Each structure stands twice: as C-alpha cells, then as structure tokens.
Amino acid sequence: MNANEMNEHPVEAEAGTGLKRTCLASCRKILDRVARVKEAIFAESHQAFKSQERLLRLALNEAEAMAWQTMYPHLVFPALATEKVQAVAAWSAHQHRVRRAA
User: Cβ of 89: how many Cβ atoms within 10 Å?
Assistant: First the structure.
C-alpha cells in the first residue's frame, strides 16, 4: 500500500495499528503471567530442592516450552510445571533411596 492509498483509507490504517497494539499488549500480558507463575512455582519448590536448583529450573523451562506450543500457554503452563516438579521430586527421592541402599 503506497502513501496515497493510506491517505485515502486512514481508518483502515489506524485499525491495523490498533490491532497490532492490542495483540502486542495481550502477548506481553501472557508472557508476564507465565513468568510470574514460573517464579512462584520455583520459589515454592526451591525449599525442597535446594541442592537441585538447576534441575528444577530446567524442568520449569521445559514446561514453559511445552506450554508455548499450545493455544493457551498461560492456562496450560501451571499444570505442566506442577507435573515436571513432581517428576523431579520423584526422581530425587528415588536417587536418595538408591544412594542410601548402596
């Protein structure tokens, strides 16, 4: 679209810009929500995994990556993150039992 065409249809040009701003704001809001939930789950779980902080971070990053592959990452992420943290807890408990038995 050239400058003359944009001048002929200023409402359409403004509508596109408004839509872009709305979509961008929505994406930022979702990013912020996921980040806040991620940090909350990390803070809550960190006490149980003091020696395994890196593993906990990796599990949360994996859950976030999986959530972003869905249509509703902000809704899916908490459940995925909880599952990943539980898996880390189970693995950690298993490792502890194995080490104690050895």
Answer: 16
